[in-house]
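Quick one - inputs below.
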Amino acid sequence: MVLDIPLSPRTGKLLGRLFPFLALLLLYFPLSYVDVLCHEMGHCLLALAQGGTCTGIVIRQEGGEALANSYLVSFGGWLAQYVLALAVVLLSRALEPKSFTARSVVVLIVLFNLMGPPTYIASLHDDSFGALQVLEATGVGLNVSIVLLEGAAAVLFVVGGYVSWKALSAYLSDIFGWMESKRSSQAALVLIAVGVPIVLISSAILNGPEPQFSFEGSATFIALIFSFALVIIPPAPPSWRGTNVGPSRAALAVIVLLFIETQLIYFFVVPITIPIPP
Amino acid sequence: MRRIETLAVVLAIVLVLSTTVYFVVPSLLTKPSPSVCSDGTYDPQTTFLTNDELGKPLYNLTYAQNGVQQNGLYYSFTSNALSWIKSNTPSSATFLNLWDYGKEITGCTGRTSVVSNPSAQFIALGFTKNVTERDSDQAVADISTALYTTNVTLSQSIASKYGANYVLVTTEDGGFKAPVYLQLLGLKSTDYVTPSGEAFNAADWTSLGQQTVIYKLLAGQTVIGLPQVYSDAYVKIFAVG
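Output:
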């Protein structure tokens, strides 16, 4: 079942372009928690795999922290994010989800987890600082370690950007059925090459380089996503009688409820420690 | 399909209601007033910010010092300790403590804290956001050394260097915060402690960690030259003598 928004010429000019992004925006918050949990679980799993320790995961307003220790623990968070993105890409190829909600979840997870880690790696703070120490301990020297990390970040940004571009391009083609595929591809490229770095860098400057929950980052994200919708997505032609431009009513209800849940968690529940049994 | 959608909506409603009943309502009902910082004898302003890492209310603190407005944080779990300080220490007393508690010691009690802000070196490690003021690298490192060293004599000489009359430690100093300060001092934190939570837990400390001053103070061991003068579930205060 899809939400069939009757697109008059007027609503086609505005609502038809904004509504899918509003749904994406609401999904962004619960998926942020999934992303943070995945990142911290990655630290834990890598620590345990190396024979180290992981006693729990702490979720705070400003992000997460794994209570883990091992030689390569700093790399675990990013690794888990890439594994999650790869799994979601492979699953979506196999299952070919048709619903707006499923497609939106897929594209958001791909964007989060392919575009986020290169920024964190390049920051040389927190996990990146830990990774730098590991590299330096191999005896290659500080400058070479920095070059290696920044180089890895650049390669991952290009590769992740390419995969994200393809995923987003296909998504925009499906959601905005009146757009030509070439326009979808261009729109996706603009978002990947300009929009994502703006959000990630501004968020990193304001809040630090780890995955964060923040009003500043969210506000930047909201402003960018709506500007993008109005500037890059062309208005639907008057003849357009579109479907598949939003989640089903039930899915929308769940998305809104999960959004409310994440806000309650942010303001009233965290910090929480999730213990990992030995 | 419709059945699954209905079930999903019902589950989401149950989730939101459960969170509201178990977390939101109790949180709203148990927010205490920051009486220490609003008792009329001193004039700081406090506004509720959020719950801190121990789940206790954390307040924004604003006060005037020598005509200059100061901003900081007031951790309500230190409330009883701050009351004790106001009643039992001279107004000229100087406290040696992690910078985290410096502003509230000054803002809520009028006493002096050796450090009240992070240093540039501390920030460079990637910790602490949204604090714009800085104390010197030397002072923050010295205070960290005084608490996390295994050399009690060194602690005492640092206290003497800064004219500190009291040492204040909190249970948080022996939890997640410990590795941060050990890292600041260039030490491998796991040689000393692998915290299992926000609060001090003696079982988290290695045999080397158990030689540190902070461990001894929080574990209730006697430290020569630092007799305990105050203790509650969260804070311990020691006289430098």
